[in-house]
Amino acid sequence: MRRGGGISLGFPPFAGAVKWLVIVNAGIFFLLAILEHAFTSSGAGFARAIVEGSALVPSLAVRGEVWRLFTYAFINSGFLYILFGLLALWMFGAEFESRWGAATFVQFYFFCTIGAALTAIAVAYAFSALNLLGFRPDVPVIGLNGPLYGILAAFGVEYGDRDVMMFPLPFTIKARYMVIVWLLIAVYLSIVSGPGGILNVALLGGALCGYLWLKLVPARGMGFYASERYYGMRNRYFRWKRRRAARKFEVYMRKHDRSQYFDEYGNFKPPENREGKPNGEAKGPWAQ
Q: Which tens digits make up the pLDDT trace of 187-234?
């Protein structure tokens, strides 16, 4: 449902899955900062090892390091980058969590996270083979903007008429236009940033996944979708069995005298009422 509305100047409640995603992202950011700056060189080396082991490197992900498809989204660099990213996650993500519930929102978040990663991998290999924009499959990608852009794209589609404040700028804009501007910026940076532009491709992949979720996945989430698919397949199987049994019965009846078992109205005749059978002595052909 699209809603118009007033200016969104306040913040939604800080609770639920959004709260924990914000806390985990912020906690990992400050932990890595402490290791890198507050300890000896061994601490900085440990921090670099965490980043290198968690970043999305397409060439490593396709070799089996599949955890990189979602761990990259919890590695962030730059204080302003993570500050505004987490504020956006809180402001826009809480809207969908209050509507869908925490479980479905978490499914949506990681759907966009993994979808953004797969998009980056596909584009990195395709553009590397075509020698376009300098993209290479060994360039790492980090940051929460993959799932964040999925949330923003979904917000622009679902609440496109709502006015939002372009924090920290002192003016408002329709949500759909805000999302369009950010996507155009991501496209531009993908083109001009050289090998690092693969990060912005991940943003576009996250936005695409946010749009696809709204269009293809039921409001109750992937679990409900999977159960619907399961019960739909099961019901189709039972309908097929019933049709098969009906065809076999028709074949059987064509080989026998139908009037012996059914009257002129199509009603089944009990064995005791069939012609040629004395009462109390008739047995159906299935009895031994």
A: 888 888 888 788 888 888 999 999 999 988 876 556 555 555 655 676
Give the chain's length. 288
d(CA 235, CA 185): 48
Task: Give residue limits of the domains in the chain.
Answer: 16-217, 232-273
CATH top class, domain 16-217: mainly alpha
List all residues 6 or more positions away from 70 whose beta carbon is below 8 Å from its beta carbon. 110, 113, 114, 117
pLDDT tens for residues 87-132?
989 989 999 999 999 999 999 999 999 999 999 999 999 988 888 8
pTM reported for the whole predicted model: 0.73
Asked if 18 and 99 touch (Cβ cutoff 8 Å), the reply is no
Residue type, 139: V
Kindly compute the dihedral angle of the four CA atoms of residues 125, 127, 131, 136, in this order, to the nearest 10 degrees.
-50
DSSP code of residue 269? P
- Measured over the CA atoms of residue 256, residue 258, residue 259 and residue 263, the dihedral's sign is positive
